[in-house]
Amino acid sequence: MADSQNIGVPWIMCQQSDAPQPMINTCNGWYCDSFEPNSPTSPKMWTENWTGWFKSWGGKDPHRTAEDLAFSVARFFQRGGTFQNYYMYHGGTNFGRTAGGPYITTSYDYDAPLDEFGNLNQPKWGHLKQLHDVLHSMEKTLTHGNISTIDYGNSVTATVYATEEVSSCFLGNANETTDATIDFQGNTYTVPAWSVTVLPDCKTEEYNTAKVSTQTSIMVKKPNKAEEEPSSLKWSWRPEDTVKTVVLGQGHVVANQIIDQKAAANDASDYLWYMTSVNLDKADPVWSDNMTLRVNGSGHMLHAYVNGDYLGSEWAKYGVFNYVFEQAIKLKPGSNVISLLSATVGFQNYGAYFDLIGSGISGPVELVSHKGDETITKDISGHKWSYKTGLNGLESKLYSSNSPGSSMWQSEDLPTDKMMTWYKTTFDAPLGTDPVVVNLQGMGKGMAWVNGHSIGRYWPSYIAEEDGCSADLCDYRGPYDNNKCVTNCGSPTQSWYHVPRSFLEDDVNTLVLFEELGGNPSYVNFQTVTVGTACGNAYENKTLELSCQNRPISGIKFASFGNPQGVCGSFVKGDCEGSNDALSITQNLCVGKEGCSIEVSESTFGSTSCATDRRLAIEAVC
Fold this sequence. Notes:
Number of strands: 38
Largest sheet: 6 strands, antiparallel
Shape: globular
Number of helices: 8
Mean pLDDT: 95
């Protein structure tokens, strides 16, 4: 069918090793240098180079180093790659209900070269730019040259691309711990472990993936200078109306079975009410003073009510697709209303047969009686169930300035830690042009809108896993996966939420929160994201570009040419130093300017006694 469309360009199928001809099977992953297409006539294509990884609610923040990402790219082209595409190159935000997963966070920053807000993620962006500049200069040789490889052993190889006019070379060291010194075409080269050196003319080292000579940016958040927050934010509130659902159990659709949420709600809302009435008398076998309600859920959020009283909630971790909710209940003789609110947190959106994965309440739903050693179960899944999609506040568009209920907000007796509550405030847009974020620390779980635009789901009360983080500098060497180089252990999964400036008005802006679990809005505040510190650790004969992202460099905190030690924020001088004063030189070049270019060489900073690998380390304050 696809081939019959005669679209004029080849079809590809990623991660499909048995793709039939003429489809081109391609690779997705962190590394694709060893991938080979299933036909000798197909080009070696990498459709998704994962620049980092997404974050899940309850998960840690994954990071992939610039050195490792560049290594994966250079090694792919060293070993015959023809096409490489980044996933993601630009991080983003899952506004509204677009986050999938399930349990993928609203932020989809992905540690991409361009971050969630569009800022340069340095050094990753600059290090890759320099690599692609070098690769692009070799384009004719890489696409037309004959390939030959020399194997030095211990995972060290040299690859030559040669045409009749010119040759280009790669020196690769895939050993995870040992640097390699090799003789190649009459010259000696040292190739660090887990790196690739690129020689466009097979002589001069233009680039090595482990040697980062671009800026490192430390991003900071700055308070809203337009007003004193959070004290300036005046809140009003109103409860979500649950009388018909929690007390009366009245819905819009009735069925004598438990229905999957995707089928019942048709993806119109995260929320679906499951409601039924159970008639009991004391002669019923399940009746006792020791009864529980047992609900088999699909791994999303569940809130249970019995006869209008809140019973409890349950949710699972990322990757868990079922759980059992069970709580003690007190029923009365006669009619008892059981109301279950299911709240999905994004649907499965990848993997085989993802459309068949259930959501909502999977069932069975049971009353369980414990009488001594005897357990009696009454399955009520086949009862008449009433269903209602969404919440009344969502139907009334309480987040909109045009809502018919806009006059019913209260400003007195602001409740905190109260489930199913709407909050509203107004604020002044932060000054300037830097990206805007709102801090929702103190809130539980829910949804947020700015001037009627949904900025996504929030869940700052979900704390990331405690274990797996390290204070040590991440070692780029060795294979990467999303459990390596993680941060944010034991902290809220996501506290800061992106508010695009296109959502904001010049004068008064409105923030509306629907709080599902219970929280305190008095800590909410808006801030801006910008470069706080710009550092460099560039090698000799490179040009270091420093920038404060449209703001002036206000000072140089540290500068040393020679063999400085440490990382950004903790640089110290080494045991050899250029004869010229690096601090005064860089101050003259950079202070007061939005950006500056520094030639890293002895001609700039004076001679040193360093034997090799002379570098300039600099820390600039924005």
